[in-house]
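batch_manifest entry 22 of 60
target: Membrane protein
source organism: Nitratireductor aestuarii
requested by: lab member K.T.
priority: normal
notes from requester: please return tokens only, no post-processing; we will run our own comparison against the previous entry in this batch. if the run fails, retry once and flag.
--- input ---
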Amino acid sequence: MHQSAYVLLVLTTLFWGGNAVAGRLALGHVSPFSLNLLRWGIMFLLLLPFGLKHVRRDWPVIRKNLWLMLFLGATGFTGFAAIMYKALEYTSAVNVSIEQAAIPMLIIVLNFVLFRLKATWLQILGFAISLVGVALTATHGELERLAQLDLNFGDALMLLAMCCYATYTAMLRLRPQIHWLSTATVFSFAGSLAAIPFLYWEYATGNAFMPDLQGWVIALYAAVFPSVLSQVFFIRGTELIGSNRAGLFVNLIPVFGTLLSVAILGEALHTYHVMALVFVVIGITIAEWSGRRAAGAKLP
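--- output ---
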């Protein structure tokens, strides 16, 4: 069970790490909120032929929980992605990737506030170590900037985006126990609906434009890999080991995102980025080791 969850969650974070790179490559080829609507709209159309029969079968349960499922889809899909794509106009893909390491700590806080679900002290220590990496990235290696609140606007947007995804992950435990294709189909429909107001605002301000050829390629990548595959894998991984431990794997996004950003975008790799990644890897190792002990799992 644990091995299956690990494979699913590692692939999820690999695709999500690539999503930050895709968002950066999209600049000038498709506007952020156009990309957001295309991403979830294409995902919905791809899932619909396979998920429709399951949605029909599960509809009585879905109908009873419809507002919750629409909220989860809007928050975890569009809320996070739309704000992240906008953040990439102001900050680098490396920064966006590494800053997502703060999501697991936000998940732990929300799980405790909403459900009184406690984490172990070693898990908290591991997440705290990861947060040092996030702070190093957000402040560009100058931690004193935290006291001055002198942060990049894109980094501030990412904080809002991370709150959206942490809320989604913590509240996944409330979703009805229906077929995973039903869940993914309804969530992608909700994400598509929620993307429309963002696109309308972008259009009203004169900033919306449809994709060119490169923009369509990026939209298709975003729809298939960080959307269809990643969301399905993450939902299943969360079912297998719980949201606290599954959320921990978000800390792998900085590793994949940074490597892909340097390799594909040619972005600079600074010393503080390397230090941040070291803190993230140490943090994830400590926290997952503690989580497995608490769950009674046998270490390999």
